[in-house]
Amino acid sequence: MKIVRLKTEITRASLTGWLLFLFLPASMFFSSCVSHKNTHGATSDAQAVTGEYTPALTFAPDVPQARNNTTPKKVIVEIEVIEKVMKLADGVDYTFWTFGGKVPGPFIRVQEGDEVELHLNNNANNKMPHNIDLHAVNGPGGGAEATMTVPGHSSVFTFRALNPGLFVYHCATAPVGMHIANGMYGLILVTPKGGLPYADKEFYIMQGEFYTKGKNGEPGLQPFDMDKAIKEQPEYVVFNGAVGSTTGSNALQAKVGDRVRLYVGNAGPNLTSSFHVIGQIFDKVYAEGGSEVNQNVATTLIPAGGAAIVEFTCKEPGTYNIVDHSIFRAFNQGALAQLLVTGPEDKNIYSGKLADQFYYPPIQQGIAKKDKPANEVIAAEPSFAERFKDGHTLFESNCSGCHQTTGQGLPGSFPPLAKSDFLMSRPDKGVGVLLHGINNQPITVNGKHFQGVMPQLQLTDDQIASILTYVRNSWGNKSAAVKAADVKKLR
Hints:
single chain; alpha/beta; 6-stranded mixed sheet; 11 helices; disordered N terminus
C-alpha cells in the first residue's frame, strides 16, 4: 500500500515540483465534479455581487455581528498563519500552528451568495508551508490546492458561499492530522438568505485534541507525539485551545431570559464530541451545522471536522458546565467550559436543595434507626494512622474525581488541595466545606481565583473527620488529626 501511494505521489510531484509534493495533502488529488449550469454553460447559482465588504473577524468565544442585508457582496478575508509558543495548561507550553495567532482561528461570518476573496498570508518567521481547506467551499480541496503557501508568501483565491450552514476550516498540508492537532482550525458561518433568528448572546466554542510527548499535566514545553495521534490517545481534549480557556473569570456571561446561541465546532482530528451543557436543554439543534433542526435535545454528537449550532433560553441563574459528555475528557483532559448566568431565581422551575437529613435504611444490622439506645457505647477515637488510612479510601471514592488523586485539582475549574492555603488556614479545619458545601462563590486558592461550586456531601461525622485528616496530611499539607467530635460541634 505504501509503495503504490509513493509511486502515485512521485508522478504527481513530477508535474508540480518536488517542494509542493512534500506538503500537498491527499485531498488535493481529488476534484469536485458538481456544477450548476444554465443553457449557455455558465455557472448560475450566484447572483451578481454589489459592492465590497471587509468583515470583522473575531476570536473565540466572540462572534461577529450579522451584516443584516441580503445583497451578495464581495467579501475580503485576510488570515495570517503564525507559529508560536502558547500556554496549553498551567505550567504546560506548546508550539501551536495558528490561523491568526490564536486557537481556534478567527470566526468568519458571511452570507449565502457572497463571493469570498480569501488571502492566506504565511508569516516569514514560520518554518512550515501551510494552506486552508474550508468546508464551505465547492471546489478542489476546499481551497487547499489554491492556498498552498510557503513562509513569507501570500496566496489568494475566491469562492462563492453557495450553501448556508456552519462549517469547519483547517489546514490541509501533509501530514494533515499534525497541522490540525497543532491548532490550525476554525469556523466559517454562511448565514442563510434573510439571516438567522434573533439571539441575545452568541458564542464561539471549538473542541480540539492535543497529543503531547509528556503526560497530561507534565510541565514545560511539550512536543507533538505522532504515535499517540495515530493511536487516537490525546493527553488533552480542550475547548478554545487550552485547559481552562473558558472557565472561571473567563466564563461565558448571560442573564436569565437571554436567548443563547452557541456555534460549536469539533476540529478533531480524531474524536467525536458528545456536546452537552449540564443543566440546559437545547431548544434547537442545527444538526451537523446544516439546515435540519432538531428540538429538545440534551446532548448532540459533533463528528471530527463537523459543527453544530445549539440554542437555548436561560431560565435559572447559576454556573453551567459545558462539556464533552465523554465525561473523562471534561474533568480529566480539559474539555470543560462554563456559562455564568445571573438574574432572579424561579423556584417553580428549580427549587434547589429543600432538605438535607440522615437516611436510615429499613434494616441495618447493629444500628438503631433514629433513637439511640440508652446503653449505647461511644466508640473510641481511632488512631491517626487509622484515620489517615480510612480517609485515603473515602477520598478516592468521594473527592478524587474533581480534585484528582494527586490533590492538584483541575486548572480553572477545581482548586488544588495540595499545599492549599484556603484549606489549611481555615479555623474549622475545612469541616464547614464538607458539611455545607460551597454554593457558587468566588474563592482564592494559592493566589488563583475559582468559582467555588461544591455540593454538600452526605457523609457521617466520622467519615468527614477521616477525609480531612488524610487531606490535611497529604501532598505537602501537615496538621493534627481531625476528630469526629470536631465535626459534630459544627454540624
